[in-house]
Amino acid sequence: MKSMTLGILLGIVVGLILTAIFLKTMNKDGKMKTEYDERQKEARGRAYMFGFYGVVFANALFLVLSTSFDLKFLGLSLYFIPILVGIIVQVTYSIFHDAYVGLNNNMTRFLVGMTLISAFNIFVGVMACIHGELIVDNKLQGPFINLLCGGIFLILVVELGIKKLYDGKSE
Description:
two-stranded antiparallel sheet, mainly alpha
C-alpha cells in the first residue's frame, strides 16, 4: 500500500472520530444523533434527493469535459468536487427549508465549530500554497481539498447567517 493511500485512509478515520466527538458536543443533550420533527425529516429526504442529483450532474459534467480537456490537473479533487457539490446542494436546501437545524442543536457551539473547521482547512491550504505544495507537476495536490472543505464550511456558516437574518425580518 502506498504511503499516500495510507495517509488518506488515516485522514478519513481521524476525520470520522473527530466528527463523532464534534457531533456529541454540538447537541444540547450530548447525543451524537440530531433529532428532527416529521416535517424536517420529509424536507431532509428531498434535500438528499437533490444532493444526489447534484453529484450526478457534477460527474456528468466532468465526463463531458473529459472528452475535450485533460482533467488530470485536478488530481484527487476530480473525485471530491462532485461530492462537495452534492453536499452543498443538500445543505443549502435543508437550511432554507428549515430542515438543517435539529431540535437538540446548540447553534452557538455549532457555528463556532464550523468556523473553526473552516479556518483550519483554509489555513492548511494556504500554508501548502505558501510552501509550493498546492500544485506539483501542474497537478493540484491534497491540500486543495482542504481549501474546498474550508470553503464548504464557510458557505454553511454564511447560509445559516443569511437564514437567521431572513427569519428575523419575517418575524
